[in-house]
Protein backbone atom coordinates (compact mmCIF):
# COMPACT_ATOMS: atom_id res chain seq x y z
CA UNK A 1 0.00 0.00 0.00
CA UNK A 2 1.47 3.33 -0.96
CA UNK A 3 1.37 6.25 1.41
CA UNK A 4 -0.60 9.13 0.01
CA UNK A 5 -2.09 12.20 1.60
CA UNK A 6 -5.55 11.61 3.11
CA UNK A 7 -6.99 14.05 0.60
CA UNK A 8 -5.72 11.92 -2.29
CA UNK A 9 -8.26 10.95 -4.89
CA UNK A 10 -6.53 7.81 -6.09
CA UNK A 11 -7.98 4.48 -5.13
CA UNK A 12 -6.30 1.75 -7.14
CA UNK A 13 -4.83 0.79 -10.51
CA UNK A 14 -4.76 -2.38 -12.62
CA UNK A 15 -2.58 -3.25 -15.59
CA UNK A 16 -3.66 -6.19 -17.77
CA UNK A 17 -2.10 -7.64 -20.87
CA UNK A 18 -4.03 -8.96 -23.87
CA UNK A 19 -4.28 -12.44 -22.37
CA UNK A 20 -6.05 -11.34 -19.23
CA UNK A 21 -2.98 -11.66 -17.03
CA UNK A 22 -2.99 -8.97 -14.38
CA UNK A 23 0.54 -7.62 -14.69
CA UNK A 24 0.20 -5.23 -11.81
CA UNK A 25 -2.28 -4.23 -9.15
CA UNK A 26 -1.50 -1.04 -7.27
CA UNK A 27 -3.68 0.07 -4.38
CA UNK A 28 -3.68 3.41 -2.59
CA UNK A 29 -6.95 3.47 -0.74
CA UNK A 30 -9.42 0.64 -0.92
CA UNK A 31 -11.09 0.06 2.41
CA UNK A 32 -13.78 -2.25 1.11
CA UNK A 33 -13.21 -5.34 -1.01
CA UNK A 34 -15.58 -8.27 -1.23
CA UNK A 35 -13.74 -10.65 -3.53
CA UNK A 36 -10.43 -12.43 -3.42
CA UNK A 37 -7.74 -10.66 -5.40
CA UNK A 38 -7.84 -13.20 -8.19
CA UNK A 39 -11.61 -13.04 -8.59
CA UNK A 40 -11.48 -9.28 -8.39
CA UNK A 41 -9.01 -9.08 -11.25
CA UNK A 42 -10.91 -11.58 -13.37
CA UNK A 43 -14.09 -9.63 -12.86
CA UNK A 44 -12.42 -6.37 -13.77
CA UNK A 45 -10.95 -7.81 -16.95
CA UNK A 46 -14.18 -9.47 -17.92
CA UNK A 47 -16.10 -6.25 -17.35
CA UNK A 48 -13.80 -4.26 -19.59
CA UNK A 49 -13.77 -6.89 -22.28
CA UNK A 50 -17.55 -6.84 -22.42
CA UNK A 51 -17.78 -3.08 -22.11
CA UNK A 52 -15.49 -2.59 -25.10
CA UNK A 53 -17.57 -4.94 -27.16
CA UNK A 54 -20.80 -3.33 -25.96
CA UNK A 55 -19.72 0.24 -26.65
CA UNK A 56 -18.56 -0.72 -30.15
CA UNK A 57 -21.86 -2.42 -30.90
CA UNK A 58 -23.98 0.46 -29.61
CA UNK A 59 -21.99 3.11 -31.44
CA UNK A 60 -24.48 5.28 -33.36
CA UNK A 61 -21.87 6.66 -35.78
CA UNK A 62 -19.12 4.10 -35.95
CA UNK A 63 -18.21 1.66 -38.69
CA UNK A 64 -17.40 -1.93 -37.93
CA UNK A 65 -20.38 -3.57 -36.28
CA UNK A 66 -19.11 -6.91 -35.17
CA UNK A 67 -21.41 -9.29 -33.38
CA UNK A 68 -21.79 -8.74 -29.67
CA UNK A 69 -19.31 -10.91 -27.83
CA UNK A 70 -17.11 -11.45 -30.90
CA UNK A 71 -13.44 -10.74 -30.33
CA UNK A 72 -12.13 -7.53 -31.83
CA UNK A 73 -8.76 -5.97 -32.42
CA UNK A 74 -7.51 -3.38 -29.93
CA UNK A 75 -8.37 0.03 -31.27
CA UNK A 76 -11.09 -1.25 -33.57
CA UNK A 77 -14.42 0.42 -33.12
CA UNK A 78 -14.92 3.33 -30.80
CA UNK A 79 -12.87 3.41 -27.61
CA UNK A 80 -14.56 3.70 -24.28
CA UNK A 81 -12.49 5.61 -21.73
CA UNK A 82 -14.30 6.02 -18.44
CA UNK A 83 -17.41 5.52 -16.36
CA UNK A 84 -18.50 7.18 -13.16
CA UNK A 85 -20.62 6.09 -10.24
CA UNK A 86 -21.56 8.08 -7.12
CA UNK A 87 -18.59 6.65 -5.21
CA UNK A 88 -15.83 6.21 -7.80
CA UNK A 89 -14.68 6.90 -11.33
CA UNK A 90 -13.02 4.26 -13.48
CA UNK A 91 -10.72 5.43 -16.30
CA UNK A 92 -9.47 3.06 -18.96
CA UNK A 93 -6.82 3.08 -21.66
CA UNK A 94 -5.79 0.36 -24.08
CA UNK A 95 -2.68 0.30 -26.22
CA UNK A 96 -2.64 -1.35 -29.65
CA UNK A 97 -0.42 -4.02 -28.12
CA UNK A 98 -3.25 -5.01 -25.82
CA UNK A 99 -1.92 -3.47 -22.61
CA UNK A 100 -4.89 -2.17 -20.60
CA UNK A 101 -4.51 0.41 -17.86
CA UNK A 102 -7.35 0.98 -15.40
CA UNK A 103 -7.35 3.74 -12.84
CA UNK A 104 -10.01 3.86 -10.12
CA UNK A 105 -10.32 7.26 -8.50
CA UNK A 106 -12.57 9.58 -6.58
CA UNK A 107 -15.59 10.52 -8.74
CA UNK A 108 -14.68 14.20 -8.74
CA UNK A 109 -11.50 13.47 -10.76
CA UNK A 110 -11.40 15.06 -14.21
CA UNK A 111 -10.42 13.46 -17.49
CA UNK A 112 -7.54 11.09 -16.91
CA UNK A 113 -6.77 10.12 -20.50
CA UNK A 114 -3.60 12.22 -20.61
CA UNK A 115 -2.55 10.81 -17.24
CA UNK A 116 -3.03 7.24 -18.38
CA UNK A 117 -1.10 8.00 -21.54
CA UNK A 118 1.72 9.42 -19.44
CA UNK A 119 1.78 6.41 -17.15
CA UNK A 120 1.96 4.07 -20.12
CA UNK A 121 4.56 6.10 -22.05
CA UNK A 122 6.88 7.15 -19.31
CA UNK A 123 6.46 4.75 -16.44
CA UNK A 124 5.32 1.39 -17.74
CA UNK A 125 7.49 1.44 -20.90
CA UNK A 126 10.53 2.94 -19.22
CA UNK A 127 10.65 0.86 -16.06
CA UNK A 128 8.96 -2.39 -16.95
CA UNK A 129 9.22 -3.08 -20.68
CA UNK A 130 12.81 -1.88 -20.86
CA UNK A 131 13.87 -3.92 -17.85
CA UNK A 132 15.75 -6.92 -19.25
CA UNK A 133 15.00 -8.94 -16.16
CA UNK A 134 11.27 -8.70 -16.68
CA UNK A 135 9.58 -11.63 -18.42
CA UNK A 136 6.91 -10.43 -20.79
CA UNK A 137 3.42 -11.59 -19.98
CA UNK A 138 4.13 -12.11 -16.30
CA UNK A 139 3.09 -10.01 -13.32
CA UNK A 140 5.87 -7.68 -12.26
CA UNK A 141 7.10 -6.20 -9.02
CA UNK A 142 9.31 -3.22 -9.61
CA UNK A 143 10.27 -0.70 -6.95
CA UNK A 144 11.26 1.96 -9.45
CA UNK A 145 7.90 1.64 -11.17
CA UNK A 146 6.03 1.90 -7.88
CA UNK A 147 7.92 4.93 -6.62
CA UNK A 148 7.73 6.81 -9.92
CA UNK A 149 4.02 6.06 -10.14
CA UNK A 150 3.41 7.31 -6.62
CA UNK A 151 5.35 10.48 -7.38
CA UNK A 152 3.35 11.05 -10.50
CA UNK A 153 -0.11 10.50 -9.04
CA UNK A 154 0.66 13.06 -6.35
CA UNK A 155 0.70 15.64 -9.13
CA UNK A 156 -2.72 14.60 -10.34
CA UNK A 157 -4.79 16.08 -7.55
CA UNK B 1 55.51 6.43 -58.28
CA UNK B 2 54.44 4.22 -55.44
CA UNK B 3 55.70 0.69 -55.76
CA UNK B 4 54.62 -0.91 -52.51
CA UNK B 5 52.36 -0.37 -49.52
CA UNK B 6 52.58 -2.50 -46.37
CA UNK B 7 50.72 -2.74 -43.07
CA UNK B 8 52.48 -4.37 -40.13
CA UNK B 9 50.88 -5.30 -36.83
CA UNK B 10 52.06 -4.39 -33.36
CA UNK B 11 53.96 -7.65 -33.04
CA UNK B 12 55.76 -6.88 -36.27
CA UNK B 13 53.59 -9.44 -38.03
CA UNK B 14 52.77 -8.57 -41.63
CA UNK B 15 49.09 -7.79 -42.15
CA UNK B 16 49.06 -6.56 -45.70
CA UNK B 17 51.56 -6.06 -48.46
CA UNK B 18 50.74 -4.98 -51.97
CA UNK B 19 53.14 -4.13 -54.74
CA UNK B 20 52.09 -1.85 -57.55
CA UNK B 21 54.61 -2.69 -60.23
CA UNK B 22 54.46 -5.64 -62.56
CA UNK B 23 57.20 -7.45 -60.89
CA UNK B 24 56.80 -10.89 -59.41
CA UNK B 25 59.57 -10.23 -57.01
CA UNK B 26 57.48 -9.23 -53.96
CA UNK B 27 60.11 -10.90 -51.81
CA UNK B 28 62.28 -7.87 -52.37
CA UNK B 29 59.58 -5.68 -50.87
CA UNK B 30 59.12 -8.00 -47.92
CA UNK B 31 62.80 -7.54 -47.24
CA UNK B 32 62.67 -3.76 -47.55
CA UNK B 33 59.64 -3.55 -45.24
CA UNK B 34 61.28 -5.84 -42.74
CA UNK B 35 64.37 -3.65 -42.60
CA UNK B 36 62.28 -0.57 -42.22
CA UNK B 37 60.77 -2.04 -39.06
CA UNK B 38 64.18 -1.80 -37.40
CA UNK B 39 64.47 1.81 -38.41
CA UNK B 40 61.03 2.52 -36.99
CA UNK B 41 61.95 0.91 -33.67
CA UNK B 42 65.07 3.01 -33.52
CA UNK B 43 63.28 6.24 -34.30
CA UNK B 44 60.65 5.63 -31.68
CA UNK B 45 63.05 4.64 -28.92
CA UNK B 46 65.36 7.54 -29.83
CA UNK B 47 62.63 10.01 -29.26
CA UNK B 48 61.81 8.35 -25.96
CA UNK B 49 65.42 8.53 -24.81
CA UNK B 50 65.72 12.14 -25.81
CA UNK B 51 62.92 12.81 -23.39
CA UNK B 52 60.76 14.16 -26.14
CA UNK B 53 57.31 12.72 -25.84
CA UNK B 54 56.80 12.28 -29.52
CA UNK B 55 53.12 11.99 -30.26
CA UNK B 56 53.87 12.11 -33.91
CA UNK B 57 52.41 9.32 -36.01
CA UNK B 58 54.22 10.28 -39.20
CA UNK B 59 57.83 9.10 -39.01
CA UNK B 60 59.06 10.62 -42.22
CA UNK B 61 61.69 9.19 -44.52
CA UNK B 62 63.02 6.04 -42.91
CA UNK B 63 65.93 5.28 -45.20
CA UNK B 64 66.73 5.65 -48.85
CA UNK B 65 67.86 2.63 -50.86
CA UNK B 66 69.46 2.93 -54.26
CA UNK B 67 66.13 2.79 -56.09
CA UNK B 68 63.53 3.65 -53.52
CA UNK B 69 62.55 5.90 -50.70
CA UNK B 70 60.79 4.35 -47.73
CA UNK B 71 58.40 6.31 -45.52
CA UNK B 72 56.94 5.17 -42.23
CA UNK B 73 53.91 5.88 -40.04
CA UNK B 74 52.96 4.31 -36.75
CA UNK B 75 49.54 4.57 -35.12
CA UNK B 76 49.20 4.81 -31.35
CA UNK B 77 48.19 1.17 -31.30
CA UNK B 78 51.60 0.32 -32.81
CA UNK B 79 50.23 -0.54 -36.25
CA UNK B 80 52.88 0.45 -38.76
CA UNK B 81 52.29 1.57 -42.30
CA UNK B 82 55.18 1.53 -44.77
CA UNK B 83 55.28 3.25 -48.13
CA UNK B 84 57.91 2.45 -50.76
CA UNK B 85 58.16 4.86 -53.64
CA UNK B 86 60.48 5.68 -56.52
CA UNK B 87 59.64 9.38 -56.43
CA UNK B 88 62.67 11.46 -55.66
CA UNK B 89 60.77 14.53 -54.64
CA UNK B 90 57.51 13.65 -52.93
CA UNK B 91 55.99 16.47 -50.96
CA UNK B 92 55.87 15.95 -47.25
CA UNK B 93 52.22 17.00 -47.16
CA UNK B 94 51.35 14.43 -49.82
CA UNK B 95 52.95 11.60 -47.90
CA UNK B 96 51.26 12.62 -44.67
CA UNK B 97 47.94 12.77 -46.44
CA UNK B 98 48.55 9.35 -47.94
CA UNK B 99 49.16 7.81 -44.55
CA UNK B 100 46.16 9.50 -43.05
CA UNK B 101 43.89 8.02 -45.69
CA UNK B 102 45.56 4.64 -45.40
CA UNK B 103 45.01 4.71 -41.65
CA UNK B 104 41.32 5.50 -42.15
CA UNK B 105 40.97 2.62 -44.61
CA UNK B 106 42.71 0.32 -42.15
CA UNK B 107 40.36 1.35 -39.33
CA UNK B 108 37.32 0.55 -41.45
CA UNK B 109 38.75 -2.83 -42.42
CA UNK B 110 39.57 -3.62 -38.80
CA UNK B 111 35.99 -2.74 -37.81
CA UNK B 112 34.67 -5.64 -39.88
CA UNK B 113 33.43 -8.11 -37.28
CA UNK B 114 34.81 -10.95 -39.38
CA UNK B 115 38.32 -9.57 -39.32
CA UNK B 116 40.49 -11.30 -36.78
CA UNK B 117 42.91 -8.85 -35.18
CA UNK B 118 46.47 -9.99 -35.88
CA UNK B 119 45.53 -11.96 -38.97
CA UNK B 120 46.14 -10.82 -42.51
CA UNK B 121 43.65 -8.37 -44.01
CA UNK B 122 41.73 -10.20 -46.70
CA UNK B 123 39.13 -7.55 -47.40
CA UNK B 124 38.62 -6.81 -51.08
CA UNK B 125 37.16 -3.43 -50.19
CA UNK B 126 40.35 -2.50 -48.35
CA UNK B 127 42.51 -3.54 -51.31
CA UNK B 128 40.36 -1.42 -53.60
CA UNK B 129 40.58 1.60 -51.33
CA UNK B 130 44.34 1.27 -51.09
CA UNK B 131 44.48 1.11 -54.87
CA UNK B 132 42.47 4.32 -55.09
CA UNK B 133 44.62 6.09 -52.54
CA UNK B 134 47.74 5.06 -54.42
CA UNK B 135 46.29 6.23 -57.73
CA UNK B 136 45.50 9.65 -56.36
CA UNK B 137 48.85 10.05 -54.66
CA UNK B 138 50.69 13.13 -55.68
CA UNK B 139 47.78 14.44 -57.68
CA UNK B 140 47.57 18.23 -57.29
CA UNK B 141 45.12 19.27 -54.60
CA UNK B 142 41.75 20.42 -55.99
CA UNK B 143 41.62 24.22 -56.36
CA UNK C 1 -2.43 3.41 -37.56
CA UNK C 2 -2.69 7.04 -36.64
CA UNK C 3 0.82 8.16 -35.71
CA UNK C 4 1.70 11.71 -34.89
CA UNK C 5 4.48 12.61 -37.25
CA UNK C 6 4.95 15.95 -35.57
CA UNK C 7 7.69 16.08 -32.95
CA UNK C 8 6.23 14.30 -29.93
CA UNK C 9 5.08 16.40 -27.05
CA UNK C 10 7.79 15.83 -24.41
CA UNK C 11 5.28 16.26 -21.63
CA UNK C 12 3.57 13.05 -22.61
CA UNK C 13 5.95 11.05 -24.81
CA UNK C 14 9.44 10.25 -23.59
CA UNK C 15 12.33 11.97 -25.38
CA UNK C 16 14.20 9.89 -27.91
CA UNK C 17 17.71 9.12 -26.75
CA UNK C 18 20.50 8.55 -29.22
CA UNK C 19 23.42 6.17 -29.21
CA UNK C 20 26.64 6.30 -31.20
CA UNK C 21 26.10 4.51 -34.51
CA UNK C 22 29.53 2.90 -34.58
CA UNK C 23 29.09 1.54 -31.09
CA UNK C 24 25.81 0.01 -32.18
CA UNK C 25 27.30 -1.47 -35.35
CA UNK C 26 30.32 -2.93 -33.56
CA UNK C 27 28.17 -4.35 -30.76
CA UNK C 28 25.91 -6.08 -33.25
CA UNK C 29 28.94 -7.42 -35.13
CA UNK C 30 30.28 -8.84 -31.88
CA UNK C 31 26.94 -10.55 -31.18
CA UNK C 32 26.91 -12.20 -34.61
CA UNK C 33 30.51 -13.33 -34.23
CA UNK C 34 29.78 -14.83 -30.83
CA UNK C 35 26.74 -16.65 -32.16
CA UNK C 36 28.86 -18.08 -34.96
CA UNK C 37 31.38 -19.32 -32.42
CA UNK C 38 28.70 -20.76 -30.14
CA UNK C 39 26.49 -22.43 -32.72
CA UNK C 40 28.89 -23.07 -35.60
CA UNK C 41 26.09 -23.91 -38.03
CA UNK C 42 24.96 -20.96 -40.16
CA UNK C 43 21.29 -21.97 -40.21
CA UNK C 44 21.27 -22.21 -36.44
CA UNK C 45 22.76 -18.73 -36.16
CA UNK C 46 20.10 -17.38 -38.51
CA UNK C 47 17.44 -18.93 -36.28
CA UNK C 48 18.98 -17.52 -33.11
CA UNK C 49 19.14 -14.04 -34.61
CA UNK C 50 15.48 -14.33 -35.49
CA UNK C 51 14.58 -15.46 -31.95
CA UNK C 52 16.59 -12.64 -30.38
CA UNK C 53 14.86 -10.22 -32.70
CA UNK C 54 11.47 -11.62 -31.75
CA UNK C 55 12.13 -10.98 -28.05
CA UNK C 56 13.34 -7.48 -28.81
CA UNK C 57 10.33 -6.73 -31.01
CA UNK C 58 7.83 -7.86 -28.39
CA UNK C 59 9.21 -5.19 -26.03
CA UNK C 60 10.10 -2.60 -28.63
CA UNK C 61 6.48 -2.37 -29.74
CA UNK C 62 5.39 -0.73 -26.48
CA UNK C 63 8.27 1.71 -26.65
CA UNK C 64 7.38 2.51 -30.25
CA UNK C 65 3.66 2.92 -29.55
CA UNK C 66 4.51 5.22 -26.68
CA UNK C 67 6.99 7.42 -28.54
CA UNK C 68 5.03 7.66 -31.75
CA UNK C 69 1.73 8.26 -29.96
CA UNK C 70 -0.12 5.56 -31.85
CA UNK C 71 -3.63 4.69 -30.76
CA UNK C 72 -4.89 2.36 -33.45
CA UNK C 73 -3.22 -0.43 -35.37
CA UNK C 74 -5.61 -2.53 -37.36
CA UNK C 75 -4.80 -2.09 -41.05
CA UNK C 76 -1.79 -3.92 -42.47
CA UNK C 77 -1.21 -1.39 -45.23
CA UNK C 78 -1.12 1.51 -42.81
CA UNK C 79 1.02 -0.49 -40.42
CA UNK C 80 3.63 -1.20 -43.08
CA UNK C 81 3.79 2.50 -43.93
CA UNK C 82 4.27 3.51 -40.33
CA UNK C 83 6.97 0.88 -39.82
CA UNK C 84 8.87 2.13 -42.84
CA UNK C 85 8.56 5.84 -42.22
CA UNK C 86 8.40 6.14 -38.43
CA UNK C 87 9.72 2.90 -37.00
CA UNK C 88 12.92 2.55 -38.96
CA UNK C 89 13.56 6.27 -38.63
CA UNK C 90 13.10 6.19 -34.87
CA UNK C 91 15.31 3.22 -34.13
CA UNK C 92 17.83 3.02 -36.96
CA UNK C 93 17.67 6.55 -38.32
CA UNK C 94 17.05 5.30 -41.85
CA UNK C 95 13.89 5.42 -43.93
CA UNK C 96 12.57 2.40 -45.73
CA UNK C 97 10.17 2.35 -48.65
CA UNK C 98 7.21 0.03 -48.95
CA UNK C 99 6.81 -1.66 -52.32
CA UNK C 100 5.66 -4.74 -54.18
CA UNK C 101 2.25 -5.12 -52.57
CA UNK C 102 0.52 -8.37 -53.38
CA UNK C 103 -2.96 -8.22 -54.92
CA UNK C 104 -4.70 -9.16 -51.67
CA UNK C 105 -2.69 -6.62 -49.61
CA UNK C 106 -1.33 -9.40 -47.43
CA UNK C 107 2.28 -9.20 -48.53
CA UNK C 108 4.69 -6.36 -49.12
CA UNK C 109 8.37 -5.51 -49.21
CA UNK C 110 10.35 -3.04 -47.17
CA UNK C 111 13.31 -1.69 -49.14
CA UNK C 112 16.34 -0.35 -47.29
CA UNK C 113 19.13 1.36 -49.14
CA UNK C 114 21.08 2.12 -46.04
CA UNK C 115 21.52 -0.12 -43.04
CA UNK C 116 23.62 0.84 -40.01
CA UNK C 117 23.97 -2.79 -38.94
CA UNK C 118 26.25 -3.59 -41.86
CA UNK C 119 28.71 -0.69 -41.82
CA UNK C 120 32.24 -2.09 -42.33
CA UNK C 121 30.96 -5.65 -42.71
CA UNK C 122 32.19 -8.05 -45.37
CA UNK C 123 31.01 -11.63 -45.26
CA UNK C 124 33.84 -14.13 -45.56
CA UNK C 125 33.66 -17.16 -47.86
CA UNK C 126 32.76 -19.47 -44.98
CA UNK C 127 29.62 -17.52 -44.08
CA UNK C 128 27.83 -17.21 -47.35
CA UNK C 129 24.51 -18.58 -46.11
CA UNK C 130 24.43 -16.18 -43.18
CA UNK C 131 21.54 -13.76 -43.06
CA UNK C 132 23.55 -11.15 -41.16
CA UNK C 133 20.65 -8.80 -40.42
CA UNK C 134 18.17 -11.53 -39.58
CA UNK C 135 17.57 -9.89 -36.24
CA UNK C 136 15.52 -7.27 -38.05
CA UNK C 137 13.14 -9.94 -39.32
CA UNK C 138 12.65 -11.19 -35.79
CA UNK C 139 12.04 -7.68 -34.48
CA UNK C 140 9.33 -7.04 -37.05
CA UNK C 141 7.71 -10.41 -36.44
CA UNK C 142 7.73 -9.96 -32.64
CA UNK C 143 6.41 -6.42 -32.75
CA UNK C 144 3.62 -7.24 -35.20
CA UNK C 145 2.53 -10.23 -33.19
CA UNK C 146 1.96 -8.00 -30.17
CA UNK C 147 -0.44 -5.92 -32.22
CA UNK C 148 -2.41 -8.98 -33.22
CA UNK C 149 -0.77 -9.61 -36.61
CA UNK C 150 0.89 -12.95 -37.16
CA UNK C 151 3.45 -12.60 -39.94
CA UNK C 152 6.26 -14.26 -41.78
CA UNK C 153 9.24 -11.98 -42.36
CA UNK C 154 12.41 -12.72 -44.29
CA UNK C 155 15.14 -11.11 -46.37
CA UNK C 156 14.85 -11.57 -50.10
CA UNK C 157 17.65 -9.22 -51.12
CA UNK C 158 20.83 -8.71 -49.11
CA UNK C 159 23.54 -6.18 -49.94
CA UNK C 160 26.13 -8.29 -48.17
CA UNK C 161 25.42 -11.05 -50.66
CA UNK C 162 25.82 -8.81 -53.67
CA UNK C 163 22.33 -7.34 -54.17
CA UNK C 164 21.86 -3.62 -54.64
CA UNK C 165 19.47 -3.05 -51.71
CA UNK C 166 18.12 -4.80 -48.64
CA UNK C 167 14.62 -6.10 -49.24
CA UNK C 168 12.52 -7.56 -46.42
CA UNK C 169 9.40 -9.45 -47.44
CA UNK C 170 6.54 -9.27 -44.89
CA UNK C 171 3.58 -11.60 -45.22
CA UNK C 172 0.51 -11.25 -43.02
CA UNK C 173 -0.69 -14.72 -42.09
CA UNK C 174 -3.65 -13.76 -39.94
CA UNK C 175 -4.97 -11.11 -37.63
CA UNK C 176 -5.73 -12.53 -34.19
CA UNK C 177 -8.39 -10.54 -32.38
CA UNK C 178 -8.52 -10.74 -28.62
CA UNK C 179 -10.34 -13.72 -27.24
CA UNK C 180 -11.91 -13.85 -23.82
CA UNK C 181 -9.14 -15.65 -21.98
CA UNK C 182 -10.94 -17.22 -19.04
CA UNK C 183 -12.44 -20.51 -20.05
CA UNK C 184 -14.50 -21.36 -16.97
CA UNK C 185 -17.37 -19.03 -16.30
CA UNK C 186 -17.09 -18.36 -12.61
UniProtKB/TrEMBL annotation, chain A:
**Any transmembrane segments, and where?**
none
Which controlled-vocabulary keywords does the entry list? Endoplasmic reticulum, ER-Golgi transport, Golgi apparatus, Transport
Annotated signal sequence range: none
Has the keyword Transport been applied to this entry? yes
Q: Mind telling me which InterPro entries this protein's record contains? A: Longin-like_dom_sf (IPR011012), TRAPPC (IPR007233)
Q: What is its main location?
A: endoplasmic reticulum
A Gene Ontology cellular-component term: TRAPP complex
Q: How does it assemble?
A: Part of the multisubunit transport protein particle (TRAPP) complex.
- The protein's name: Trafficking protein particle complex subunit
Output the lineage of the source organism: Eukaryota, Viridiplantae, Streptophyta, Embryophyta, Bryophyta
From TrEMBL, chain B:
For this protein, the record's SUPFAM superfamilies field holds: SNARE-like
Q: Which InterPro entries does the UniProt entry name for this protein?
A: Longin-like_dom_sf (IPR011012), Sedlin (IPR006722), TRAPPC2L (IPR044760)
- Which BP terms does GO give this entry? endoplasmic reticulum to Golgi vesicle-mediated transport
Q: Which GO terms describe its cellular component?
A: cytoplasm
Q: Which residues form a coiled coil?
A: none
Q: Which domain of life is it from?
A: Eukaryota
Gene3D superfamilies documented for this protein: 3.30.450.70
Q: Which family does the record assign?
A: Belongs to the TRAPP small subunits family. Sedlin subfamily.
| Protein name as annotated | Trafficking protein particle complex subunit 2-like protein
Higher taxonomy:
Eukaryota, Viridiplantae, Streptophyta, Embryophyta, Bryophyta
UniProtKB/TrEMBL annotation, chain C:
Subcellular location, in the record's words? Endoplasmic reticulum; Golgi apparatus, cis-Golgi network
Q: Which residues form the signal peptide?
A: none
Q: Which UniProt keywords apply?
A: Endoplasmic reticulum, ER-Golgi transport, Golgi apparatus, Transport
Query: tRNA processing as a keyword?
Result: no
Is Lyase among the key words of this record? no
InterPro entries for this protein: Bet3, NO_sig/Golgi_transp_ligand-bd, TRAPP_component
Chief place where the protein resides: endoplasmic reticulum
GO cellular component, alphabetical, reads: endoplasmic reticulum; Golgi apparatus; TRAPP complex
Q: Name one GO biological process term.
A: Golgi vesicle transport
Function of the protein = May play a role in vesicular transport from endoplasmic reticulum to Golgi.
UniProt subunit comment: Homodimer.
So what family is this one in? Belongs to the TRAPP small subunits family. BET3 subfamily.
Record-given protein name? Trafficking protein particle complex subunit
Q: What is the lineage of its organism?
A: Eukaryota, Viridiplantae, Streptophyta, Embryophyta, Bryophyta
Amino acid sequence: MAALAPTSRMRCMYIFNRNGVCLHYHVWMRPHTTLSQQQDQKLMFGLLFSLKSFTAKMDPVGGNKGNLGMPSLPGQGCSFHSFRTNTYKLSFMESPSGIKLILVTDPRMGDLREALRFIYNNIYVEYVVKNPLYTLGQPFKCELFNSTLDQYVKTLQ
Amino acid sequence: MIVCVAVVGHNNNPLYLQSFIDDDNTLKFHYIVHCSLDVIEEKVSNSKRAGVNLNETFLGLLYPTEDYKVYGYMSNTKIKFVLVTTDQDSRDADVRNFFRRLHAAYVDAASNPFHVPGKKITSAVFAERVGNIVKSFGAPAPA
Amino acid sequence: MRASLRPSDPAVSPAIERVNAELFTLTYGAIVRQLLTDYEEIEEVNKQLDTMGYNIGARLIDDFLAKANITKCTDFRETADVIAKVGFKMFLNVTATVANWSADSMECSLILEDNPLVDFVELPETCQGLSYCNILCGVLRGALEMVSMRTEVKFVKDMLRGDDVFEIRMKLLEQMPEEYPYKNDE
